[in-house]
């Protein structure tokens, strides 16, 4: 019995070690197996450094000649920041390569596998393909669109509130859900909020896990109303901070620049800034994924402009009530249920007493 799935699972686990460190490149892990014995393993550790395949080959405890290499992404065949992995695989006399998902990077896109086969290497594809695609959903989106993958994330009560009528929101979910959120802040390159949230909550949006890294903060601020004394602004010299704005008040913009903020001039669309334009600019700045953390006005604009790729909703077993207590998506809303924003491919995670629902754009 072959253990393709077992070894691919190991490659995925290895790949995950690169989370937060390799953006905008993919998470890749590789395992080299000979006579059902693991003789090498490696993963892509840092952006611009050696790919998983080369790290695995370098770690081999015996000759990889005749061995099988498991890798969650099709090996590359181009010279980028590093030479093609296909070359290293061929040279090492690996006999067989088992691939999880094909690489949609136009510089690879099936050519990696073709080269391996031309050199007499047996290639097996699509092993745990779905898991491998999910692992790199950010990369797959970014390499094909050039814009960040946007995840709208919020936590609410059973009656759909994100704060009480007095505006207080700490805490809705339990510890497990909150820990997962910090994990996401470590993984996603960007975190986006609207100016109202800055004014109301004055958040820092940092990642509070050991050895984690902070995401770049992005404030959507049509009229440049962010308080110059906001914590985000005060910490902008240490943590990359972007302010997307339609304001052209150079004097005011300079005050923010002096604090280390990066201002992105964005055209206006209706009463708000054009989110599609903003995410294109962020894509050019190598921001491959964004956690959208509200508030309600921005969430509605994001849904309306079609930039939301994934929804992540945490639900806590509590009820706040209150006709004026706010909900996750505000704005004008739709008039008729037939105009609803639709999602697909539901996933449910249990986090203690809370649940986490994930849906994808339809
Ligand atoms: C990675 N790590 O382990 C694998 C990658 O610019 P480069 O040379 O680092 O190449 C990046 C591309 O290489 C990337 O977009 C993907 O298509 C391919 N595979 N990349 O960063 C890896 N296997
Ligand atoms: Zn490579």
UniProtKB/TrEMBL annotation:
One GO MF term attached to the UniProt entry: 5-amino-6-(5-phosphoribosylamino)uracil reductase activity
What cofactor does this chain's UniProt record say it requires? Zn(2+)
Q: Quote the catalytic activity from the record.
A: 2,5-diamino-6-hydroxy-4-(5-phosphoribosylamino)-pyrimidine + H2O + H(+) = 5-amino-6-(5-phospho-D-ribosylamino)uracil + NH4(+); 5-amino-6-(5-phospho-D-ribitylamino)uracil + NADP(+) = 5-amino-6-(5-phospho-D-ribosylamino)uracil + NADPH + H(+)
| Entry-linked SUPFAM superfamilies | Cytidine deaminase-like, Dihydrofolate reductase-like
Which Pfam family, any one of them, does this sequence belong to?
A: RibD_C
The segment(s) forming the CMP/dCMP-type deaminase domain are: 2-123
The note describing how and how many cofactors are bound reads: Binds 1 zinc ion.
**Which InterPro entries does this chain map to?**
APOBEC/CMP_deaminase_Zn-bd (IPR016192), CMP_dCMP_dom (IPR002125), Cytidine_deaminase-like (IPR016193), DHFR-like_dom_sf (IPR024072), Eubact_RibD (IPR004794), RibD_C (IPR011549), RibDG_C (IPR002734), Riboflavin_Biosynth_HTPR (IPR050765)
Q: Where are the transmembrane segments?
A: none
Which EC number(s) does UniProt give? 3.5.4.26, 1.1.1.193
Tell me the keywords, alphabetical order. Hydrolase, Metal-binding, Multifunctional enzyme, NADP, Oxidoreductase, Riboflavin biosynthesis, Zinc
Q: In which pathway does it act?
A: Cofactor biosynthesis; riboflavin biosynthesis; 5-amino-6-(D-ribitylamino)uracil from GTP: step 2/4; Cofactor biosynthesis; riboflavin biosynthesis; 5-amino-6-(D-ribitylamino)uracil from GTP: step 3/4
Q: What does this protein do?
A: Converts 2,5-diamino-6-(ribosylamino)-4(3h)-pyrimidinone 5'-phosphate into 5-amino-6-(ribosylamino)-2,4(1h,3h)-pyrimidinedione 5'-phosphate.
Q: What protein name applies here?
A: Riboflavin biosynthesis protein RibD
What lineage is this protein's organism placed in?
Answer: Bacteria, Bacillati, Bacillota, Clostridia, Eubacteriales
Which gene name does the record give?
Answer: ribD
């Amino acid at each position: 019995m072959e253990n393709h799935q077992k070894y691919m699972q190991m490659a995925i686990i290895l790949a995950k070690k690169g989370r937060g460190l390799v953006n905008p490149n993919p998470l890749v892990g590789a395992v080299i197996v000979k006579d059902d014995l693991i003789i090498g393993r490696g993963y892509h550790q840092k952006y611009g450094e050696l790919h998983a395949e080369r790290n695995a080959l370098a770690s081999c405890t015996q000759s990889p000649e005749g061995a099988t290499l498991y890798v969650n992404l099709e090996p590359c065949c181009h010279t980028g920041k590093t030479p093609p992995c296909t070359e290293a695989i061929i040279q090492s006399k690996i006999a067989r390569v088992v691939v999880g998902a094909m690489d949609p990077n136009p510089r690879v896109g099936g050519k990696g596998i073709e080269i391996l086969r031309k050199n007499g290497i047996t290639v097996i594809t699509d092993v745990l393909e779905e898991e491998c695609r999910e692992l790199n959903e950010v990369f797959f989106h970014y390499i094909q669109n050039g814009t960040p993958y946007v995840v709208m994330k919020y936590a609410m009560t059973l009656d759909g509130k994100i704060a009480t009528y007095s505006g207080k929101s700490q805490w809705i979910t339990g510890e497990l859900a909150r820990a997962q959120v910090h994990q996401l802040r470590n993984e996603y390159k960007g975190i986006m909020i609207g100016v109202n949230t800055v004014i109301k909550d004055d958040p820092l949006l940092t990642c509070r896990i050991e050895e984690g890294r902070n995401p770049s903060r992005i404030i959507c601020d049509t009229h440049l109303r962010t308080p110059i004394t906001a914590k985000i602004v005060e910490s902008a010299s240490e943590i990359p901070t972007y302010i997307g704005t339609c304001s052209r008040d150079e004097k005011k913009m300079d005050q923010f620049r002096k604090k280390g903020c990066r201002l992105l001039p964005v055209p206006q669309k209706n009463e708000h800034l054009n989110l599609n334009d903003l995410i294109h600019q962020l894509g050019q700045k190598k921001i491959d994924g964004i956690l959208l953390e509200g508030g309600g006005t921005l969430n509605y604009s994001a849904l309306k402009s079609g930039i939301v790729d994934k929804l992540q909703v945490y639900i806590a077993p509590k009820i706040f009530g209150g006709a004026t207590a706010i909900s996750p998506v505000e704005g004008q809303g739709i008039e008729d249920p037939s105009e609803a924003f639709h999602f697909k491919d539901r996933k449910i995670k249990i986090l203690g007493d809370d649940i986490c629902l994930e849906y994808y754009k339809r």
